Structure formats: C-alpha cells, structure tokens
Amino acid sequence: MSEFTPKIWMNVTTSANWHRAPVGIVRVEQSLCSELSRLYGEQFKQCVWQDGDFNEWSPKIVEKQNVLKGGENQIKEATLQPYITPPLYPLLSRRLALIALAQGLLSLAPNKIRPYLNHFLCSLRLFILRMIKSDWVVRFRPLIRSSPPLPLLASNAEETQSEKKKMKLFSSGDVLISVGLDWGYEFYKEFYFLRKEKGVRVVTCCYDLIPVIYPQYCVGAVAGIFTSYFLEIADGSDLILCISNQTEKDLQSMLHRVGGAKPKTYVFPLGDNVPIADADDVSPSVREICKEPFILYVSTIERRKNHEVLYRAYHLLCEEGKREILPKLLFVGMKGWGVGDLQKDIELDPLTLNLIIQLDTVTDGELRALYEAAEFCVYPSLYEGWGLPVGEALSMGKVVLSSNAGSLPEVGGGLVVYVDPWDIRDWARKIFELSSNATYREDLEKKVRDSYMTRTWSQAALSVYKQIQDL
Amino acid sequence: MKILTLCTYPIKSPQHGGQFRVQNIVNAYRKWGYSVQVVGVLGSDAYELEDGFHEFPGNQELSRFIPNPFLMEDYALGRLFGSEDLFYSRLKRLISSPPDVIHVEQPWLFDFAARYRRENVPNAKIIYGSQNIECHLKRVILQFYFEEKVAQQGASLIEKVEIGAIEGADGIMCVSEGDAIWTKAQSTKPIALVPNGVKSWQASEAGRNEAAIHTKGLRYALYCASAHPPNTIGFFELFGGGFGSLKPDQKLVIAGSAGWSIAGDVRVHQSPKLAERVIPLGVVSQPCLEGLLDGAHCIVLPLTLGGGTNLKTAEAIFSGKYVIATSCATRGFERFIGSNGFYLADSASEFKRALRIAMNSPVLKLSAAEIESRRSVLWDNCFKEIPDFLKLLVKGEKK
C-alpha cells in the first residue's frame, strides 16, 4: 500500500480574479505560491473558490488565458479552446447571488414601498431556498437557455449539484493555504468546518488590523467586517501567518479583547527584493524623471499613507526660501480615496508648483530604475502592518526617512531615519538635511549597503514551509 | 395568623424575578400554615388582571404626581394609592379581612400600608420586603433615558419613599448582604436576609424536545432574562464591540422577553458576530425553558446594574451548568465564586473570554458535595430565616 501524501493547496482566488498589475497582497500570494510550488513539487496544488466551493485551479488555464489576451498565438489558441469569457468577479454562489439581487431590488425601491417589498421577498425566501436545493435549475436549463453556458473557468464550470459535493477537493490531512484578499469572499467562513469536518489544516495570513484599529483611515465602516473576518479565521485556522511582530501583537490583542480563539501565529518576513527586470522596460517619461534628483515615495496615494505631511513639509521649506535646494518629490502609486483636497492643494500651490510629481503605475523595470535613481526614499505612513517599500528601498541601498508608527521600525531597525508621522516641521528638517548634506546622506547610504540583509521570497516561503511541516 | 401581601404585579403566572419572589414567599407563608391574601395594583397595563388587584390607573392619573411618569410609574402609583382617598378606598376594599402582618414587597405601596394600618389595624406589623436598593437602581436606569438632573430628581423621590418604608416598617427582609448593609445604615429595625432562590425542576422529555427544535443540536450558552432595561443594558455592555466567544457552530440562546428586545436593538448588529451567534427565542413555555436549561452548556448572566439578587443566578447555579456572571449578578451568591464551573467576570473582555473557555470545556461534572452546595439556592433554603423572623416581629420572641 502506498503511503498517503497530503496535498498542499494554495487558494489563489485573489490572483485568479486580479486583472491589474499585482500589488501588495496579490504579490505576496503569487510570490509564496511560486516559491512553495518549487519547494513542494507535485504535492502542491492550486485552488479557487467558485460557485460556493473550492475547485482545482490549473496554472495552465491561467497561461491559456494570458495567451488569449494578445500575441500571435491568440488565433491558434482560440481555435483549440473555446473562448473563455472573463466573468464579472467575484462570482457568487446561487444563494448569495439571489440575496444580492434581493438587496439590489430593496435598495432601488422607493422608501414607501420598501417595507412591503421586504415582506414579500422574505415570504419568498423559503420557496427560493427549496428551489436552489432541488435540481430545478438543471431540469429546466434546456428551456431557459438556448445554448450551453460558456465555461467560466474551464473544467471548473460545472455547477455543484448538492451540499454533499461541497469541499470534495480536500482530504483529511491536506493543508489549505489562503493568504489573499480573503475578506472579500465567502470562503473563509468554511475554514472552521473544513478543519472540523474534513480534517484539513488551514493556514491563513493577517496583514494588518488597520480597519479595526484605525477605521477612520479606511473607506466606509469596515471595522465590523474585518473584526468578523479575523474572528472567523481565528477559529478556522491552524496557523495564522503575520507579516510583522506589530501585526501579530495587534491581532492577539484584538482577539483577546473580544474573546476570540487564540490560534498559533507565526511572523514571517516578506521578501523585499525588487524584481530584476529588463532595463529596456523603462518608459521615456520615467527616464526623464531619473535625469533630475528626486525623493521617492512608493505607495498607494490615500489618507493613511500621509502624503500630506510631505506636501506640507515641502510647502514649509519653500516658504523658507529653500526651493532651489529641494529635489523633486515623486509619488509612485495608484490614487486611492480621501486625497482629493490634497491633490488640489498640490496642483494649485504656487510655492510647490512642479516640485511634486506623481506616477500612477510603473513596471517592475521602472520601479527598479526609480529606486536606483532616487536621492533617498521616504515613508511617512500613519500606520502599517509591515512596510514593504521601506525594505525594498533598503535592499536597493537607499537611505529611508520613515515614520516610526506601527510595524515600520521592524523593517529596517537602526538603518532608517525615523520621524514622527504627525510632526511636519521635523519632516521638513530631515528632508532638507538629507537633501542638502550629501556627505551625511552618503554615510548613511554606505551603512545601509554594508548592513542591510535583503529578505528574499525564497526565505519567506521556506520559513512558511517549515511552519507547515510542523503543523 | 393572617398575612396581607401587597405588591404591584400579579403572581399567579410569574414572568419576571419580582413576581417569582413574591409568589414563592406567599407559597412559603401558606406552607407554614398562615392565611395569606395577595392584594395590589397592577404597575403596568401589560399585566393581566387577577383577583385582589386594582387595574393599572393609567398615566393620566399618575401624571398628577410626576410630570413624566415614564419609568417612574411605581413611584407615582404609590403616591396615588397612599394619598388619594378615592384610590386608597378602592384598594382597601379589595382586602377581605384585617391582617396581623402586612408584607409590602418593594416600597411602592408602603404609604398605603401605613395608612391602612393606622386607620384599621393599629396592632398589625409591617414587613418591608426589599428587592433592591431601589434609589440606586432607578438612578442608573433614568440616566440611560434622561439628563443627569432628571435622573437625580427621580432617584431622590425614590430614596424618600424607600427610606420611609425602612423607617416605617417593623422588620425588613433584605435580598442580599449588600442590601442589608445599606438598610442597616438607615435603620435599626430587625433585618432578615432572604435571598432569591429557585424552585427545583426536572426537564421533561417534551421540554427537551421543544428546546432541541430551537437549538438544532448545537452547543449553546443560555441567557434567560426579561426585557427589564438592566438586562439589555448589561448584555450590550458586555457583548458589544465584537463577540468572539463562540465558534461558528455554537450559539447564544436568549430566552425570555429580553430576546425580543435584544433582537430588535440595532446594537446587536453593531457588535461583529453577535447577531450571527444569537438565537433570540423570546418568552418560552416553562417546560421549554427547563429543556433549554437542561441542554445548555453554560449559562450567562451579563448584568451590570441592579441592587438585588438575581433569581436567574439561582436558576443558573441550580442547573449544574457552567455559570459566567458579573459581580452584580453574583450578589447574594458570593459563596459560589471560585467554585467548580462558576466564572466571575466583570469587564467585557473577561466575560467574553470566560464564555469561550467555558464553551470549549467538556460538559461540567459536579461532585455530590458540589451538587449539594448548588442546591442551597432552592427557595426552601433561602427562606429559612423567615419563620423565626415572623415570630420575633409578632410575639417579640428572640431569635
């Protein structure tokens, strides 16, 4: 008899549903997936959440999808495979879809009739639920559809026929690693039952508790959603990976406060090696920026990231007549929420006019080029669960002027110059000092180059691998 | 000996703690051979009228004594029946024969009792049955609805009535040690400690089955409470801000009218996971309640207000289950603190953690001695001081 080898499942639902350049969590999911795949070999599998169940996800499907996006092979591939229509994501189970429809109807209904509509919909609930559980849809499909449905995810397009089929993918002893944007899906609520009923060992990840601790920095009232999510994964995880000691502490503190489970946690270092890319992959506009001295801030542009303190520091320095000495200030990142006024200030302020510039998205090659060309880097965030750009900048040998909030001091320790994120004058002082005193900056840079140990994704994955082996 | 018991709620079908207490005291009096008549005024139009009771007089009458009778009905009602001849006479007419002892439960009808004695039975003794330090409790309740000044004024009025009852009575039955200490500071009258207790029960098969329909075979914690505001206030104080105590397949069942109040309160949705974990049953039949108690893994008493001893605490202790209670809910049952299966937790965090620990522990097993100790909360044991106390009052005998 052959010995049973548990499978290591990586839930790649986030990546499978991601259609932009990978950022933050998506990059973590993809990097860990790639490295763990190498470490586990055949034992390693990928899965996605679709139609209320986990389904195996073959990387080949992704490749085919990528091929379909363009290039010479498009026609050739298209003749071999049926066209895969990109679905509107995230996909919902039939039950959730009906709930969403009902919610939509209620939301669109005029106030006056809403209670009656609500009553009517509630009265239909049992009937609809019974209908979903029956094979009604299957029997009547030929009548309601003139052609077979387009496959959504190749072989995964088969609809789950009954509850019994759910979670058939997993066997007892298997490991499910889920480190994506999980709170946006329903699957994390299954983790507890996967552990209890199927004997699956579940590994999840906590990136930060910012929505819980600082809901004011987030869009909408998300504190409740995230508290629910963390409570659920605390019961549903054998191991929660945390990306910093601060995050681990925040998580444990929150779980203690609300009486949640206390699962095993492990702090794993995120890789901060900036991908090596083709030097030709740099646009003329980025090349142009690199010709002049500039200070680099890599981050989504949103309130918590505190771009405002940099703008105000620049305003103060210009007011003091130091504009000529200042390098340009470059924000690299997508525009997030709550920064409309700041953007307007930057656009209109005559003192700082043309001194602060912004790049929306950059390629890996461009990011590397920008890190290389920057005078130094800044990171004034009001709170972080880790602070990957600080590590990336250090790994590129750059001096970093960083906020001392949250986990940020864990990234670079004594190699970083820290400033209180609320202290505008201190930011102005330190920015000016680093900009005007080349010797000082070079000394710091040398220290960074000599001492900073770059964390690689291989190391990160290896440490996770060891933890999984110990489960 | 004839005993007249005065109260502001009917007792034939008790729903809340006060009703249970009076019903059991009356039953005990009768068991000891006394002739008891229960007379009173309904303190709310939600009560069903029963023999010996005057109907709720309505807010219009009550507002003659206080501009806004909301939450002060008991005070205004006492004034109305103590000082207004018409209402005094109506209530007096309900008394069938002159008593030897008048037991006034809570201070509301004390003015009536004092006047009735003065005018009709000057030799009768009056017992004031205290269920709370009423003025303290009232102040806290009023603070939730009104500005501090109004709360303070209401509490002062209640204090006056309460002190009047303590000073005017021949003897006082206190519900807890704390109550007795406070009362002793106001008066030198004899005091008996009569804590709240519980009637022995055994869940029936039908009751268990009915309970199981609601709980679906899941492990659950049980909260039994009426919609009395402190029961809801404590619940949200301790379970607000995120509720992580229960696993996805565990539930918190709320039996009693508190279930309806809590389910209809927006705060249940503001505490993450709370609404998902709660099963608000509302008022259930006695067999179903017994079935729920029998099947519960633990019983919670998240009370942060109230000066009396909680009947539900006695019920929880007697059930033989894990009990998680605040100091407030443990008042009168302090001897159980630290005993097997009894968790004392006062902060929200402690309470939630204790609940998680209890819910994930094996089913509680008590030794014979521990079971016997828990049986001390039965009414018979709680009332053991009453016979001597009555003798002391009526005959002046030493205890």
Low-confidence segments of chain B, given as residue ranges, are none
Beta-strand fraction estimate of chain A: 5-15%
CATH architectural grouping of the largest domain in chain A: 3-Layer(aba) Sandwich
Oligomer: heterodimer
- The whole-angstrom Rg of chain A is 25 Å
Strand order in space, largest sheet of chain A:
3-2-1-4-5-6-7
Task: Please identify the top-level CATH class of the largest domain in chain A.
Answer: Alpha Beta
CATH topology of the largest domain in chain B: Rossmann fold
Major beta-sheet overview of chain A: 7 strands, mixed
Overall strand count of chain A: 13
* Total domain modules of chain B: 2
CATH superfamily of the largest domain in chain A: Glycogen Phosphorylase B
User: Which strand order does the major sheet of chain B show?
Assistant: 3-2-1-4-5-6-7
Helix content of chain A: 40-55%
Q: What's the count of strands of chain B?
A: 13
What is the helix tally of chain A?
Answer: 20
Q: What value does the average pLDDT of chain B take?
A: 93
Q: Spans of chain A of 5+ residues with little confidence (pLDDT < 50)?
A: 64-89, 135-164
CATH superfamily of the largest domain in chain B: Glycogen Phosphorylase B
Using the alpha-carbon principal axes, give the shape of chain A: globular
Structure description:
- The complex is a heterodimer of chains A (471) and B (399).
- Chain A is an alpha/beta fold and 471 residues long.
- Chain A folds into three domains: 8-74 and 163-271 and 462-470, Glycogen Phosphorylase B (Rossmann fold); 77-153, no CATH class; 279-454, Rossmann fold (3-Layer(aba) Sandwich), CATH 3.40.50.
- Chain A contains 20 helices and 13 strands.
- Chain A has helices at 13-16, 24-40, 59-68, 73-80, 94-108, 114-133, 136-144, 191-198, 210-213, 223-236, 245-258, 284-290, 307-319, 340-348, 364-373, 388-395, 408-412, 424-436, 438-451, 457-469; strands at 8-11, 44-50, 53-56, 175-178, 201-206, 239-242, 264-267, 294-298, 328-332, 356-359, 376-379, 400-403, 417-419.
- A seven-stranded mixed β-sheet of chain A has the order 3-2-1-4-5-6-7, sandwiched between helices. A six-stranded parallel β-sheet of chain A has the order 10-9-8-11-12-13, with helices on both faces.
- In chain A, β2 and β3 (53-56) form a beta hairpin.
- The longest helix of chain A has 20 residues, at 114-133.
- With 399 residues, chain B is an alpha/beta fold.
- Chain B folds into two domains: 2-194 and 383-393, 3-Layer(aba) Sandwich (Rossmann fold), CATH 3.40.50; 205-377, 3-Layer(aba) Sandwich (Rossmann fold).
- In chain B, 46% of the residues lie in helices and 15% in strands.
- Chain B has 20 helices and 13 strands.
- Chain B has a seven-stranded parallel β-sheet, with helices on both faces.
- In chain B, β4, α5 and β5 (125-129) form a beta-alpha-beta unit.
- The longest helix of chain B has 21 residues, at 148-168.
- Chain B starts with a strand and ends with a helix.
- The model of chain B has no long low-confidence stretch (mean pLDDT 93).
- The A-B interface holds A 189, 192-193, 196, 223-225, 227-228, 231-232, 234-236, 254-261 and B 241-245, 247-249, 270, 272-273, 276, 348-349, 351-353, 355-356.
